[in-house]
Amino acid sequence: MSEMKLMPMKPYPICCSGDDCERDAEFKMAARWSDGLTEELKTYGMSCGPCLSSLYRQAEIRRSRCRLAMNETIDAIGIYRLSRGRRDVKLERMIQVEQQINQTEQDV
Ligand SMILES: [Zn+2]
C-alpha cells in the first residue's frame, strides 16, 4: 500500500508583468468585454505599484488596437487592487488611481 503524499498548499505570489520587474503584483488591469450575450473580464496584466502607470498605458494601447466584431464591446481598462484570498468579483476598483494616471497622461 503506497503512502499518499499531499502537496503542501503554497501561496503563489503573482508577479508584476513589467519588464525586468520581480516585485509581486498589487494590481490587476482588466476590461469588461461583451459580445451582447456573454461578458467577461479580460485581464490585461498584473502590476506592482511603481510600474502601474506605465503598464496601464501599455495595456490601454493594446486594448485600443484590439479589433472587435460588430457586436463586441470592450470597456476602458480598470485597475483593481489584488487582495489575497479574494475572488475576482470582489476586487476593488481603483477609479481614483485610473483618473490620476489619465490626468498625468494629458499633462505630458
Ligand atoms: Zn513592477
Task: Describe the overall structure.
This protein has helices at 52-65, 95-107; strands spanning 27-34, 39-47, 73-74, 78-81, 92-93. By secondary structure, the chain is of the alpha+beta class. Strands 1, 2, 3, 4 and 5 form a 5-stranded antiparallel sheet that branches. A hairpin with a 4-residue loop joins strand 1 (27-34) and strand 2 (39-47).
- Please state the overall shape, judged from the principal axes of the Cα atoms: globular
**Helical proportion, percent range:** 25-40%
Helix-strand sequence: EEHEEEH
β-strand percent reads: 15-25%
Q: Please identify the structural class as seen in this structure.
A: alpha+beta
Tally of helical segments: 2
Radius of gyration: 17 Å
The total of beta strands comes to: 5
Uncertain segments are none
Q: Give the termini distance in whole angstroms.
A: 69 Å
Largest sheet: 5 strands, antiparallel
Bound molecules: zinc ion
> Average pLDDT, to the nearest integer?
86
What characteristics describe this protein?
108 residues; alpha+beta; five-stranded antiparallel beta sheet; globular; binds zinc ion
Give a concise summary.
The protein is an alpha+beta fold.
Topology:
Elements: E1 27-34, E2 39-47, H1 52-65, E3 73-74, E4 78-81, E5 92-93, H2 95-107
